[in-house]
Amino acid sequence: FQDTHPQGMNLLEDLFITPNNVFQKIGDPYQTITFNQPMPLVREENIFRINITNRFGNEIAEHLNVIIPDSNIRSILEVKKSFTPIILLYKDKNDIYPTFKKIIQEHEEHDANFRGSNKRDKVLVLERKWASDVKAGVLYKEKRQKRLISKNEALKTIIFDFIIKRIVYDGGTLSEVKEWLKNHSQVHLLNKLLIKIIKKGGIDGTEIELKNLINVFLEERGSSKININNNLFKKLKDITFEIQVDEHKEDEDDIFTIHSVKGETLRSVLLVDFEEKHLTNVLLHKYGTSQEENYEYTHQNLFYVAMSRVTHLFVFAMQESDCTSEIKKVLEKKWRIEEIKSTVEV
Fold first, then answer.
1. Which of 124, 140, 259, 261 would bridge 128 by S-S if both were Cys, CB 3.0 to 4.6 A apart?
2. pTM reported for the whole predicted model
């Protein structure tokens, strides 16, 4: 419900709160991250709190409870372990990203669970324009919609379309041929072969096996057989190459806005804070090193959302000049403080 504007919530209540309805609102009010939108009105007597998580360990939970004490979140699993979060002190913005990558590498070398995680590592920014501060000369890329079909399905669709068109051309009925092929007993062999192709990263070495299997389908319906010089194999080779290139680009594109990752689970997060440094103000105020509440409630919610994405590692990049010796003494009781001494080369 935190994503519903108060006026929309009023409308829903007018429509559905009746003697015959049970109207429940489910959500996390501390994930209200739209600027100028009021926090949802929460009446304690009407709520049931589910403040436990299996995403991260108490190493992360205890800090979320400092950022927003009312969240009172805790890890459901005692065995669930995260790393002590890191404050990365920098002088030069250009040093932040390579140091973050080095920190990830160090954790991978020493922790099998972290190394074996299939979740992504992302850099989170409050504003898109900060992408070029994190990586010199890099512009924020609008994120494409998640791929709707798997690699297996992409290859299978091309092969199915080829077989269907060939059989229909030789006199079959489109709807009947589609249904026949979908339910054919040999389709499982095609699926196994496609998995093999994907693991190899291309169709090289599997052309004959694939040709023979396609010919089984074609011969059964009286269509002419094909050889490995057919244009189909070039098409399959091209698409496996495109998938490899596409994924390589996606891996490099790791800068996202905080708003764009709400609801995601990530292995690690680097949160950066430039210009007016509202997120730094949140951190200093919440840990009692600053009496000034020089930020909006939305900023504390953004910090909360960014930190609560991770399973293992959270890193906050803070300008060294903002961390006095007094502030450092307070923060290092709960955070691991890392200072970047010089430009890191990777």
1. 140
2. 0.66
For the residues of 103-139, what is the DSSP string, one character each?
HHHHHHHH-HHHHH--S-EEEEESSGGGHHHHSTTPP
Residues 332, 263 share a domain: yes
CB 289 within 8 A of CB 327: yes
Q: Has residue 135 been placed in a domain?
A: no
Per the domain annotation, does 346 fall within a domain? no
- How far apart are alpha carbons 119 and 122 in whole angstroms? 10
Pairing label, strands 266-271, 52-53: unpaired
Angle between helices 231-252 and 207-220 (to 10 degrees): 130
DSSP letter at 225 equals: P
Indicate whether 146 belongs to any domain: no
**pLDDT tens, residue by residue, 11-60:** 888 888 888 888 887 777 778 777 777 777 777 777 777 788 889 999 99
Q: SS3 for 285?
A: helix
d(CA 192, CA 78): 40
User: In this structure, are 119 and 265 located in the same domain?
Assistant: yes
Whether residue 55 contacts residue 311, with contact meaning beta carbons closer than 8 Å, is answered with yes
Residue 134 and residue 96 in contact, taking contact as beta carbons nearer than 8 Å: yes
The boundaries of the domain holding residue 38 are 6-48
DSSP strands (E only) in the chain: 52-53, 74-75, 86-90, 121-125, 255-257, 266-271, 310-319, 336-339
Q: Which residue has the tokens 């920098």?
A: 90
Give the pLDDT band (50/70/90) at residue 286. Answer: very high
- Rounded Cα–Cα distance for residues 271 and 258 (Å): 9
